[in-house]
From TrEMBL:
Keywords: Chemotaxis, Hydrolase
Enzyme class: hydrolase
InterPro entries: CheD-like_sf (IPR038592), Chemorcpt_Glu_NH3ase_CheD (IPR005659), Cytotoxic_necrot_fac-like_cat (IPR011324)
Name by which UniProt lists this protein: Probable chemoreceptor glutamine deamidase CheD
Protein function: Probably deamidates glutamine residues to glutamate on methyl-accepting chemotaxis receptors (MCPs), playing an important role in chemotaxis.
Gene coding for it: cheD
Amino acid sequence: MSDMSANIGGAGLDRLTVMQGEAHASADPKVEMSTVLGSCVATCLFDPLARIGGMNHFLLAEPPSNRSRESFDEHYGLFLMELLINKMLGLGAIKSRLKARVYGGANLNPAMRPIGTANAEFARKFLENEGIPVGFEDLGGRAARRVHFMPASGMVRCRTAPTESVPMDKPLVRPQSASGDVELF
């Protein structure tokens, strides 16, 4: 087995940014998916036998109770979780083999409603109800995250932005050095 950690963020990759309201799946070993998260949540799913993976990025967990569940909106986790699973099944993944890693759900501003916490709880509950085990999660806190995912190998790297010295009224700046770990399913 080769050391794929050099490929995370490496040259020669087809980079795909997963924006809010999107879900993508791939079996191509040259594809790297990435996203930036605050209170949003990204779920990375992986079928290790089929070597198919995918990532979504949702803004809110579920539509308000006064809204019809049949009128799906791409910003809700309820829609994007189903969409991600279906895209992966369409590529040949088997649902019973799927494994999950979940990122985001931060509450960046403590003065605001804890949307990140609600998103994280929704993702955990949805995956539990679907019988998809969560192998790793990096949820909550006050830090923004950047997630890189290699869907064909299941490798993930998550970087966290510093929070302790950043005033809430000042924009975040890119750190001189970033820390993060590569995680395998």
